[in-house]
Write a structure and sequence with these properties.
It is built from twelve helices and twelve strands. It has 339 residues and is of the alpha/beta class. The strands form three sheets. The chain has a seven-stranded parallel β-sheet, sandwiched between helices. A three-stranded mixed β-sheet has the order 7-9-11. A two-stranded parallel ribbon has the order 8-12. α1 packs across α7, α4 packs parallel to α5 and α6 runs parallel beside α8. Bound molecules: thymidine-5'-diphosphate (TYD).
Length: 339
């Protein structure tokens, strides 16, 4: 991999994948400075970055990436940007997409503009396989047209296009990664795996949408963060790299694994009304990243899932406080009358 970056602005670094990225970046590049710009919205937690908080190379700025003033300040002296900040939960986007458009589209634009003025060396846009839509057979390559189907994925596609337009128009050195479904420690318990693990540990129902036959391709948060780091440091501006784990599973397979590993009863499985516009299958062809970046996922799904379940078993102190408050409000809205 190429030499260590001088100063990296990580947005959304107190979130799930962003915090894995910061830990990895700071451990592997002992001279690199990190500025973490995070709006500390519901899915962020200072605990996710507690390990690096006292490192003199680390600084934290609380702020919104759509706020040009805050972004301009945070961008000072920055050589590399990694934009993790995003609204990312499909179900929330179905309830209302304004926050998604603000952060994922407007925020990306504001960051690109500030990065252009600063003259950064690299701008890494963290995106998702969901911008490609759903695929019945075969796998998405980076050439696949953008066919996002949810308000969330449409917002991410908008951000990708803004960033690429900044490359085309102004020469901002933009690199995009499109990741598959990510799991692991520190993930807010609204996504499938942490929601079902924590519900199972509490003896609460597991709300399976539709018949549970939908397929996702799973990657561990650390592998995903590593792929992003490879792309940031070794990728070619203007290129897109798919970052996936190569672990395609049905939601029902995941559900049964979680029940087995938590020792919870199959009776907790509750079939609920399907998600509107539910994408049937995601599948990523990651050969370009493997070939051109020399990256590959390293954590087997069996091991990663077992470690993740163990982490949630141990870290009730992390997720129990989350499951009250704002979370409860969303849970009621999303699952009321269904579970
Ligand atoms: P999710 O974790 O929301 O990720 P995404 O929608 O971005 O893929 O959902 C993963 C899969 O799990 C998806 O097919 C929807 C399904 N799912 C359920 O069946 N029940 C749930 O309560 C949730 C949150 C997801």
């Amino acid at each position: 991999m190429s030499s260590s970056p001088k100063r990296v602005l990580v947005t959304g670094g107190a979130g799930f994948i962003g915090s894995h990225f910061i830990r990895l970046l700071m451990a592997e590049h002992p001279t690199t400075e990190v500025v973490n710009l995070d709006a500390m919205t519901y899915a962020a937690s200072h605990e996710n970055v507690a390990e690096v908080a006292d490192d003199p190379r680390y600084s934290f700025v609380e702020g919104d990436i759509a706020d040009a003033e805050v972004v301009a300040k945070a961008m000072q002296g920055v050589t590399h940007v990694a934009n993790f900040a995003a609204e990312s939960h499909v179900d929330r986007s179905i309830h209302g997409a304004v926050d998604f458009i603000r952060t994922d589209v407007l925020g990306t634009y504001v960051l690109c503009e500030a990065a252009r003025k600063e003259g950064v060396e690299r701008f890494l846009q963290v995106s998702t396989d969901e911008v490609y839509g759903s695929i019945d057979q075969g796998s998405f390559t980076e050439e696949h047209p953008l066919e996002p189907s949810s308000p969330y994925s449409a917002s991410k596609a908008g951000g990708d296009l803004q960033a690429l337009a900044y490359m085309h128009t102004f020469g901002l050195p933009v690199i995009i990664t499109r990741g598959s479904n990510t799991y692991g420690p520190n993930q807010y318990p609204e996504k499938l795996i942490p929601l079902f693990v924590t519900n199972a540990l509490d003896g609460q129902k597991l709300p399976v949408y539709g018949d549970g036959s939908q397929v996702r391709d799973w990657i561990h948060g650390r592998d995903h963060a590593n792929g992003i780091l490879y792309a940031l440091l070794g990728g070619t501006p203007g290129e897109v790299y798919n970052i996936g784990g190569g672990n395609e599973r049905t939601n029902m397979w995941i559900t049964k694994q979680i029940l087995e590993q938590t020792g919870a009863s199959e009776e907790l499985i509750t079939y609920v009304e399907d998600r509107l516009g539910h994408d049937v299958r995601y599948s990523l062809d990651t050969s370009k990243a493997q070939r051109e970046l020399g990256w590959k996922p390293e954590i087997s799904f069996d091991q990663g899932l077992a470690d993740t379940v163990a982490w949630y078993k141990e870290r009730r102190d992390w997720w129990e406080p989350i499951k009250s408050g704002e979370y409860k409000e969303f849970y009621e809205k999303q699952y009321a009358g269904k579970v």
